[in-house]
Amino acid sequence: MIGYVTLGTNDRDKGAKFYDAICGELGAGRMMENEQFIAWGIPGGGAGIGLTAPFDGNPATVGNGVMVALEAKDQAQVRRLYDIALANGGTDEGAPGDRGGGFYAGYFRDPDGNKLNAFVIDLPGQ
Q1: CATH code of the domain made up of 4-53+66-121
Q2: What is the pTM assigned to this prediction?
Q3: Where is the VOC domain (predicted)?
């Protein structure tokens, strides 16, 4: 099981603003912070997300094919998360919409270029 995911940043303040807004919409706040690292989540809850300057001192880079998926409660929250991301320095990677099979998602990148999505699965009969 995943405990948390860490993403690299080259601008801690800009990244923190982005994740404060995104995680706030998901009902999570900062739960750990020092001069290098900030973690958002809910103690005892699901996986958290961390933002850090790379330990080796080199610039943070984006992993090609790497994405963090944030589970939303419904399609309206998917749309809100997508809008919040773009309003806080994120960029579009695919507007919210039905991707088939009850999978509804919106894709975006954070200010450092890390790819994320917000999604919900609406299966018939649930």
Answers
A1: 3.10.180.10
A2: 0.87
A3: 1-121
